[in-house]
Each structure stands twice: as structure tokens, then as C-alpha cells.
Automatic annotation (TrEMBL):
Entry-linked InterPro entries: HTH_MarR-typ, Tscrpt_reg_MarR-type_CS, WH-like_DNA-bd_sf, WH_DNA-bd_sf
Naturally occurring in which organism (per UniProt): Aeribacillus pallidus
GO molecular function, one term: DNA-binding transcription factor activity
Matches recorded under Pfam families: MarR
PROSITE patterns: HTH_MARR_1, HTH_MARR_2
Organism ancestry: Bacteria, Bacillati, Bacillota, Bacilli, Bacillales
PANTHER family in the cross-refs: TRANSCRIPTIONAL REGULATOR, MARR, TRANSCRIPTIONAL REPRESSOR OF EMRAB OPERON
Name recorded for this polypeptide: MarR family transcriptional regulator
Keywords assigned by UniProt, alphabetized: DNA-binding, Transcription, Transcription regulation
């Protein structure tokens, strides 16, 4: 299917893309620095945060939820398990399904560091009002949904 856009629409879309990319990089830099201060790389932090917030997760689902390649997930899970942050558990109903769980050590550590991340992210977005933050969340969700539907056209 062919789509017709004006020059102005295309330039606005590119401007939006560049602005979003710059904002993402700036916020990511803060988050990455925060992760490193706690002795974790960003992927390790993301896996631990997912387990902390959402509870046990199937190994296969962790990658898709965090937009990671399955080989990376296995490597990170192995490393986190070796360090005692998480443990694997087979699903008693389906022996092929393996879940990652946060260990007590991992939970206690995240109880300490998660509020620090939350505070730092609050500072990062403090230039926006509460209403603007909520609006930005909704707009980004809408943009994500819209971009997903374009991939399949």
C-alpha cells in the first residue's frame, strides 16, 4: 500500500524522531549510570526490576518483555543466578517451562536500590508537570501502538 505525505508532514515526523531519540538517550544515560553505580549493567538491572515488579517470569518471556535476544537473556540469567540474585524454577505443571525468580538476596538488594532509581527518574522528569508526564505516557503508548500497526501494513 502506498502512503502519500506532504513534505511538511515528513519533516515534522523526522523532527519528532530526532527529538524522541535525543530524549531517550538522555534518560537512558541517567538510568545506565544508576545501574552501574549499583554494580549492574543495564540489562541485569532491567531483568531484576522486571522480576521485582512483576514477580516470577518465564525465561522465554523475559526477552520479549525487555526487547532482548534470547542468547542475551540466557547469559544475563546465568550471571544473575551465579551471583545469587535470582534462581530458576521449573513449572511443576509443564517441565519444559522454566521461571526466573528473585532470590531473597535479590529482593533485599532491590528493596534498597529501587527507591533510588525512582527518585532519580522523578528528578529526570521534574521539568514536566504531573499532567504533562501522564499525557506523555499516553502519547508514547499511542505512538508505539501506531508504529506497531504500520509494521504490518
Amino acid at each position: 500500500m502506498f502512503f502519500s505525505y506532504t513534505q511538511e508532514e515528513m519533516e515534522r515526523a523526522l523532527n519528532l524522531f530526532h527529538t524522541l531519540a535525543k530524549a531517550y538517550k538522555n534518560v537512558s544515560d541517567h538510568a545506565n549510570r544508576d545501574s552501574k553505580e549499583h554494580g549492574l549493567n543495564p540489562t541485569e538491572y532491567a531483568v531484576l526490576e522486571l522480576l521485582y515488579i512483576k514477580g516470577p517470569q518465564k525465561l522465554q518471556q523475559i526477552g520479549s518483555k525487555l526487547l532482548l535476544v534470547s542468547g542475551n537473556v540466557t547469559y544475563v540469567i546465568d550471571k544473575l543466578e551465579k551471583n545469587g540474585w535470582i534462581y530458576r524454577e521449573k513449572n511443576p505443571k509443564d517441565k519444559r517451562s522454566v521461571y526466573a525468580n528473585l532470590s531473597e538476596k535479590g529482593r533485599q538488594y532491590f528493596d534498597e536500590i529501587y527507591p533510588i532509581r525512582a527518585l532519580r527518574m522523578a528528578r529526570v522528569f521534574s521539568g514536566l508537570s504531573e499532567e504533562e508526564q501522564v499525557q506523555l505516557i499516553e502519547l508514547l503508548k499511542k505512538a508505539a501502538d501506531s508504529s506497531n500497526s504500520v509494521l504490518f501494513r
